[in-house]
Amino acid sequence: MSKIGFLWVGKLKESFSRDGCALYWKKLSRFFQLEETVIKDAPGKLPPTDKNKVEGERILSKVKPGDVLILLDEFGERLTSRTLADKLKAWTDAPNQRPVFVIGGPFGLSDEVKAAARHTIRLSDMTLPHELARLLLLEQLYRAGTIHKNMPYHHD
């Protein structure tokens, strides 16, 4: 079973986020071995640029050899669900690598994390709260899995 990694900043605080993410995590785990690392938020007293730097260092310290970082960012590549499904298949089928999806905290990601990424994608042209972005990402990855398994979930 192919692996997918996730690096997120901060714990889920809202019950709708926890419940929705748990639902799609369980569904997605039918297709992939999932590995999650939650990065502790930087101290609240820091200015946003310093928060990004601290969180970025924490993110990069968790990257393993063979990890292919895929950042979620409002300025990333626009993808349809089918295009994401094709990209996910390519990423998970490639030998000796693991796609790792990265969602930063409320102030985004540091330049160092952005430089380390191989891909940057967006879920929307609009800015999303990071908890909602996690939920949408998990749902879209589940949708991608169902597309490749020809399961009746995605309808064009």
From TrEMBL:
Main location: cytoplasm
Top-rank taxon: Bacteria
Catalytic activity line of the entry: pseudouridine(1915) in 23S rRNA + S-adenosyl-L-methionine = N(3)-methylpseudouridine(1915) in 23S rRNA + S-adenosyl-L-homocysteine + H(+)
Enzyme class, spelled out: transferase
Subcellular localization(s) per the UniProt record: Cytoplasm
CDD domains: RlmH-like
Record-linked Pfam families: SPOUT_MTase
Keywords: Cytoplasm, Methyltransferase, rRNA processing, S-adenosyl-L-methionine, Transferase
Record SUPFAM superfamilies: alpha/beta knot
InterPro entries: Alpha/beta_knot_MTases, RlmH-like, tRNA_m1G_MTases_N
Quaternary structure and interacting proteins, as annotated: Homodimer.
Family named by the database record: Belongs to the RNA methyltransferase RlmH family.
Function recorded in the entry: Specifically methylates the pseudouridine at position 1915 (m3Psi1915) in 23S rRNA.
Record's protein name: Ribosomal RNA large subunit methyltransferase H
Organism for this UniProt entry: Pseudodesulfovibrio karagichevae
Gene that specifies this protein: rlmH
